[in-house]
Amino acid sequence: MPPLRPVSAVEALAAALRERILSGEIVPGAPLPEQDLAAAYGVARPTVREAIATLVHEGILRRERNRSAYVPEVTAEDLADLLYARRPLDHAVAAALSGRRVPEADAALDRIAALPAGAPWSEIVREHDLLHDALVAAVGSPRLVRLYAALAAETRLGVAQLQASYPDRDVLVTQHRALLDGIASGDPDAVRQAVDAHIELGWHDLLP
C-alpha cells in the first residue's frame, strides 16, 4: 500500500471549496472574497489565493480584474453548445468500446448506487467524472483524453446543476447503467441509441 501523501493547507482549502461548489452550496455568481475566506477557514490570504488559483485552473471558478472569484453560471445555451461539442466525442468513445465492458466505469457507477441517502451531490459528481474518464481512457487515445479534458470543467458544473433534475438518484444510476450496457452489447444501433438517450434524458430539463 503506498504511503499517505501529506495534504497542504492550499489543497485542503481547494478541496473544501470544490465540494461546496459541486454540491451547489456556493451558487453561480456568488463572490468569494479572499479576506472573507481567510477569516472563515482560519488561513492566510496567500493560501486562499493559491487555492482559488487551483480552482480557476480547473475551470470551476472564474476570476476577473478588480473582482472577487466566483462560480461561473452554465446557462441553458452554454449546455446546449457543450452537448453539441460532446455528442460526437461520446459517440466516438462508445463506438470504439463497442462490445466491451470497462470495469473502472462499472465500479464508479456501483459506488454512486452505494452512496448513502443524503450524500453530498459533489460525491455523485466526482464518481460521474470518474465513470466518463474511465470510458475515455479505455479508448487508448491521448488526444481524445485531452479533448475531453478541455470540456471537463463545464461538464462538471453542468452536472452540479443537474441536482434539481434528479431528486431520485436511482434515475441517474439507471440512465448510466443503460449507457454502459448499451456499449457492452456491441450492437451498433443499441450503442448509438444508448449514447443519445444518455445525453437527451440526462440534460433535457436544462436545455433551452
Automatic annotation (TrEMBL):
Pfam families hit by this protein: FCD, GntR
Keywords tagged on the record: DNA-binding, Transcription, Transcription regulation
InterPro entries found in the cross-reference section: GntR_C, TF_FadR/GntR_C, Tscrpt_reg_HTH_GntR, WH-like_DNA-bd_sf, WH_DNA-bd_sf
MF terms (GO), sorted A to Z: DNA binding; DNA-binding transcription factor activity
Record domain HTH gntR-type: where: 7-74
Signal sequence coordinates: none
Superkingdom of this protein's organism: Bacteria
Record's keyword annotation contains Transcription regulation: yes
Coiled coil regions in record: none
Protein name in UniProt: GntR family transcriptional regulator
